[in-house]
Amino acid sequence: MYFVVSGEGASDLGVKSNGEFKKGPLARLIEIIVENAGGTTPELNLICESELNELCKKSNPKNYIAKGVQRGLVFDFYCKALTLALHVGDELIGIVYFRDSDGTNSSPRDLWRSLEKAMETGFIDGGSKYGVPMLPRPKSEAWLMGYYQKFEQHQCEYNSCERFEEEPGNDNSPNSLKKRLAAALGCSVNGIYTHITYESMSDITWSRIDMPSFNIFRKRLENVACMLSRRSLLHPSSETSLL
User: Which of 9, 28, 17, 30 is nearest to 196 (CA)?
Assistant: First the structure.
């Protein structure tokens, strides 16, 4: 089973070095969900942010603008998802596009939905049935705090995870999620991903992380993994390798 993954933040998904994908913690999260749903560990290929930007220029997504897609941030999310779908083509390959949704807890919840809808529409308009928006609200540290809150005083893992979606995502806020996660881990903000690694993601029971943005991502990825698994069984000759 094959997935193309892309998005912002080398410390989150990982980096490519000399053609090798050195996977970050969010890449492992994708693998865990697919393993549980599809019964096999997927092969992942990373399209880094700079490469995606170049592909976006070449694909000229303005030619594919969907009715109602706004300019600005929503339009950018739409264009990037559409570009990934056009690049992959109509193949038996899943796509996961990761972005943090906003930098402030004052942003309206309907902005998050607009961004997710823009991704969904981009995948569809680009011809992919297997696109998955990976869109934490407000950012991935909210999902991670669902487990790592256990290091905070009087807290335990998986407790009321949904409240972290209402915390400030702006890194400049004195109470930002990133600073809170670093404090829970007992490290600097820059040291978070020496504590949270690809391997450590297997310590978390992800089915117990219960918050709206994560649930939507997990269920969509599970559905795509199941669809790809069924297609592979029914049409083994149509399975393709990664780009």
Answer: 28
pLDDT digits (tens, 9 = 90+) for 125-142: 999 999 999 999 999 999
pLDDT for the residue numbered 214: 98
The domain tally of the chain equals 1
* Residues 85, 90: Cα–Cα separation, whole Å: 8
Q: 186 burial class (0-12, 13-18, 19+ CB within 10 angstroms)?
A: exposed
Query: Does 74 map to a domain?
Result: yes
Domain hosting 49: range is: 2-137+208-237
pLDDT computed for residue 8 by the predictor: 86
Cα 1 to Cα 20: distance, rounded to the nearest angstrom: 18
Domain CATH code at residue 97: 3.40.50
